[in-house]
Structures are given as C-alpha cells and as structure tokens.
Amino acid sequence: MDAGGRFIVAMSGAARLVSDDEPLYVISVAAEMAGMHPQTLRQYDRLGLVSPRRTGGGGRRYSLREVEMLREVQRLSQEDGVNLVGIKRIMELEAEVHELRTRLASMEEVAQGRDSYLPVPAFASALAVYRSRP
Q1: CA-based, 20 to 30 A from 87: which of 12, 51, 58, 79?
Q2: Would 88 be classed as within a structural domain?
Q3: What is the pLDDT of residue 17?
C-alpha cells in the first residue's frame, strides 16, 4: 500500500495502483478473504449491511474496503454479540459521523480562506443587526 491508501495490483503482467474502494473481487474471493461463506455475503447484501457494486451482468464486485466491512460485521456479531439490526445501525451512524467530519473539514477550509480575504478590524468586536419597527 502506498501513502495514499492505494494498493499495487498486478493484472495481466502489468502492475498498477488501485484504491481500496475499487471493486475487484468476485463474491467467492471476497468471502474467502473475509473468512465467510458466499451465502453470508449475499445475506448481508440483501439486508443492506455491505452492498457491493454490480457488474453489467449483475455480479457482485467487492472492494478491499468492503472486505474490511465484512470482517467488522463478523467481529461485531461474534465477539460483541450485536445482532444484524444493531450492526446496521452502527454502520449507519459511522457513515454519518464520517460524512459530518468531511463536511466540517470543508467548512474549516472555507473559513480559513475567508479569514485571509476578509480581515476583521480589531475594533469590530460585535455585530448589531438593525430592524425597523412596523
């Protein structure tokens, strides 16, 4: 893996960098990598726990990130005793936290950019809004 979270994959004699989000693995390979039966992956897909992308013919293709998600589902279920509905909720909340952190980072970048373009004078410590009375 390189610093950008990409993996080097050799295909057809040529090596290339791939993202850990790139769908590469058919269901049998992903199941083996996750230590599960392919039918379990199908069930998780039906339940919306881990839903891989599909090929034009409808076949599932799993990314490395999705294989890691499968392992996490298995860990939560077997080690922590969380049922599948609970696991789905945990994963939804984790996705929401990730989205909020991404949005916050974007807002912080915008705010930093505005600070450099719109300096506030030292004497401006408060902002008053004037409203006329009806």
Answers
A1: 58
A2: yes
A3: 79
Which pLDDT score is estimated for 89?
Answer: 97
Nearest C-alpha neighbor of 69 from the set 23, 1, 16: 23
Residue 26: φ, ψ to 5°: -70, 165
Give the Cα separation of 59 and 40 in Å (integer): 15
Those residues with Cβ within 8 angstroms of residue 59's Cβ, 6 or more apart along the chain or in another chain: 26, 27
10-residue averages of pLDDT along the chain (134 residues): 54 71 94 97 96 95 96 97 97 95 93 66 61 71
Closest Cα to residue 42, out of 19, 72, 57, 62? 62
**Residue 76: both structure tokens together:** 């939560």
* CATH (domain of 81): 1.10.1660.10
Parallel/antiparallel/unpaired status of strands 60-61 and 53-54 = antiparallel
Domain span at residue 107 reads 22-116
Distance from C-alpha of 54 to C-alpha of 18, rounded to nearest angstrom: 18
